[in-house]
Amino acid sequence: MKKAPLKRQEIWKRLGVTPRGIDREIVEIMHRTHMGVDQDYRHILLQTMRCALADGWGGSMISTDLQDIMFGTPVPVLGSINLGVLKEDHVNVIVHGHEPLLPEMLVVAIRDPEIKALTEKSGAVGINLAGMCCSANEVLMRHGIPCAGNFLQQELALVTGAVELMTVDVQCQMQGLQSVAECFHTKLISTSDRAKIEGAEHIEFHPENGLDTAKRILRMAVENYPNRRHNVYIPSYSQDMVAGFSHETINYLLGGIFRASYKPLNENIINGRIRGVAGVVGCNNIRMPHDVGHITMIKELIKNDVIVLTTGCAAMACGKAGLLTPEAAREFSGSGLAEVCEAVGIPPVLHMGSCVDNSRILIAATAMVKEGGLGDDISDLPAAGAAPEWMSEKAIAIGQYFVGSGVFTVFGTTWPTLGSDKVTGHLFNDYKELHKGMWAFEPDPVKAAHLMIEHIDSKRKALGLDKARERVLFDMAMRRAMA
Ligand code: SF4
Fold this sequence. Notes:
The protein is of the alpha/beta class. The chain has helices at about 5-15, 20-30, 40-70, 100-110, 115-120, 135-145, 155-160, 175-180, 210-225, 245-255, 265-270, 290-305, 310-320, 330, 335-345, 360-370, 395-405, 420-435, 445-460, 475-480; strands spanning about 75-80, 90-95, 125-130, 145-150, 165-170, 185-190, 200, 240-245, 275-280, 305-310, 350, 385, 410, 440. It has three domains: about 5-70, Substrate Binding Domain Of Dnak, Chain:A, Domain 2 (Up-down Bundle), CATH 1.20.1270.30; about 85-225, Rossmann fold, CATH 3.40.50.2030; about 245-480, 3-Layer(aba) Sandwich (Rossmann fold).
């Protein structure tokens, strides 16, 4: 929690929402929502905030930090995405889910001489490892492993008839996966001790013998290659993209190796070339055409000079639409944003990782505050957040910790409290005073983008940036005082 700006920490303290422990806050909210316990919606919602903050500034952030320590902090990497990354003459193995340990081991095991020899014997040219959902983001960010697709493409990947084996662990695995796999020769392997799927083979992954498990899984995939039937169809669509924009990388790209800083970003927001920053994250949702919410919203934002930070399935949607290439700046952005992106050599939409990496966005926002010139809290920044196609329950927790960090956050598709004017009014209006960040619901992605732009403009006005004038950036002494 101490990584947050001081003013934000004070707000949490005043409201009594500073988390006391990650598990403790989860258990506490489960008890409070049990029949007959907490009966004041405002009081329950304060605990949801404490629980969500424990997720964003605790669980997710620790997880991202530990992964960076174990597997390396991501740096920009060229990758490709869409079902066209599958290869007809290769053994195709898809890693699907969220945990990075098995995918990391598969990347190592694929180079094993014994596995290579076995693959050669099977008649395949090689093993083609591809990712799905956030496992894909993890191995893309660190190894450039291709992504077969995001949430709504998991069954479609199997329908190509070209996938020998798919591993799954936790979260976002569709209930129909095994039934689809049975229509083809695909082996579905569940690997987490927390989740089994009826009909799927279960090979539990434990780090202490992780490499052996990875080799066993690859052997099964290779041995399954001759069972492939003749009904193979791989769509030819795939798109190059650049991913791997961790907070550290953005810092370096903007400031250089000796003076890594967010100063150029802040300066370009102050001089108006960049209007503001938006975090657009989250799932696919079957209530809306695949990826349309993300792409429509993000194109509208960058057209209006708002730079976009993205994670999860939203990031993969951007990859497929060609928004994660430096060339996209000229093609899709407003002239101010395009100028900055071309000068630095970055896309107008920065892929920051998987859903757990939303904490990287919090750290980037904090770095902007600490750099100076844009207020002294995240709520002062010309910034907004959105999840236009959210679906998973954890998206609500993620949205809540963004709101609790001072970010105006818009969700699309559906909103769970519309049955209560009181609760909805509290989240959409009272939160502005209480947390200096609030929720909004707007299913139309263009209208939602304009709600975000209006908010960004109101913050620019509050900072005096609607008038053309020079602002003083903080010097070292002023920054130390804020740290
Ligand atoms: S963004 Fe949503 S759908 Fe996609 S992997 Fe994460 S939780 Fe699942």
